[in-house]
Structures are given as C-alpha cells and as structure tokens.
Amino acid sequence: MSGESLLDRKPAPDCCGGFNNLEFSQMDVSVLWELWSLVDLTEPRFCVAVIAIIFNPFFWNVVARWEHRTRGLTRLFGGPYVACYSLAVLILLLNVYRSHSVTVAMKGQSRWDLLENLQVYYAGAALMAVGSLLVISSFLALGVTGTFLGDYFGILMDQKVTGFPFNVMDNPMYWGSTANYLGLALMNASPIGIVLTAVVALSYKVAIAYEGPFTQEIYRQRSQRCKHK
C-alpha cells in the first residue's frame, strides 16, 4: 500500500475539460421533442397493448406457481402432460392477442419520418429474423414442456440445455421475442412500437427475476431427493 495520502494526490487530468465545460443548452433536443409529439401514452389502443404485455407473464407465473403448490391443473386435466399442454395453448393464444394489440396500437399512431428509410427497414427485418431464430431454436431445444413451464407440473428435464441458442445468451426465447417487437416497430417506423418494445423488455426482465430462482429451487429439491434415495 502506498504511503501517499489520497488527499495529497493531485487530481487526474480532466479529459475534454470535464462535464462543467459542456454546453447542454446547445444540445439539439428537437429529435426528442419530435418523438414525444408523435407518442400518445393515453390513447386507448396503446393502453390495451400495455395491459396485454404486462398481463401475459404475470398470468403464466401465477398459474404455474399455483399448479406447483396445489397440482390443481393436473387433477383437473387428469395428468401433468395434458395440463401443461393446455396451459401452453392458452399462453400461445394470449401471445397472439398481445401481438395483435401491439400491431393495432402501432397502426393507430403516427409514423416517424426519421425511421422512414430503407436502412431502418432492413435493420428491423434483420432483427425479426434473428429474433425468430432465437425463439424457434429455443422451442426446438426445450420442447413443449420445457418451453411452457413443465417444471412447475413436475415434468423435469434430465439435464440443463446448453446447446444453441442457450450457449449464446440466457433466456433466448424472451430476448428473441423482444427483438421481434423491436424489428416490427422499426419496419413500421413506429415510435409507439419502440415504447411498447421497452415495455415488453421490462416485463420479461421482471418475469426472469421471478422465474429463474423458483425454477432453480425446483431442481435443487429434486437433486436433494435423489441424494436421499
């Protein structure tokens, strides 16, 4: 440890004169004002889309945890697989409605001239292609029960999936879906679509924070049971 006191040290050179020399008053905020003028956060179709986005992960997490605690759906449908498949169908229908509500909300508000060019359109198309690849490959790797919360029904996987796309990122299905919505917003030059994409990302972030530890606990309990056999 150096004997030199922190108080005795000379301050490091301040690159570019520091933030004190920045003229914030000269920054061009016209783009932000233009964006804000094109977005109506009180428009009913936008509000419906936000509710659909937030409701979906909330619904499937509440139902799946209830099933894990009570086995209510398993008893209702006569088995865990039929119950899981039935929830999967319902989740898919909810997701179809969510996508429809987002599309309706985008069509109901103004387009942004700044995004009206081929480069942005092709960037959006590329995002949708990548997002679709992540979603489809995740489903193929996990299967129906692995994708649609089969763990909560007692349908556990033998081992963790580590192949593509899970060797590229965590939760690729969620982020692939988010990329799809962002790509759709860019292709439609929709500022409200970008706002809704942010809502999608936030709702998935919250869902991951709840699902990850709970799922890990399910597999930890199985591991303990196997050790005691």
UniProtKB/TrEMBL annotation:
Its EC number is 2.1.1.17, 2.1.1.71. S-adenosyl-L-methionine binds at A129, V130, G131, E211, G212. Gene3D superfamilies: 1.20.120.1630. One of its GO terms (cellular component) is endoplasmic reticulum membrane. The keyword Membrane applies. InterPro entries: PEMT/MFAP (IPR024960), Phopholipid_MeTrfase (IPR007318). GO terms for molecular function: phosphatidyl-N-methylethanolamine N-methyltransferase activity; phosphatidylethanolamine N-methyltransferase activity. Residues 98-124, 210-229 are cytoplasmic. Pathway: Lipid metabolism; Phospholipid metabolism; phosphatidylcholine biosynthesis. The chain crosses the membrane at residues 46-66, 78-97, 118-142, 181-204. Belongs to the class VI-like SAM-binding methyltransferase superfamily. PEMT/PEM2 methyltransferase family. Catalyzes the three sequential steps of the methylation pathway for the biosynthesis of phosphatidylcholine, a critical and essential component for membrane structure. This is Phosphatidylethanolamine N-methyltransferase. It comes from Danio rerio. The gene is pemt.
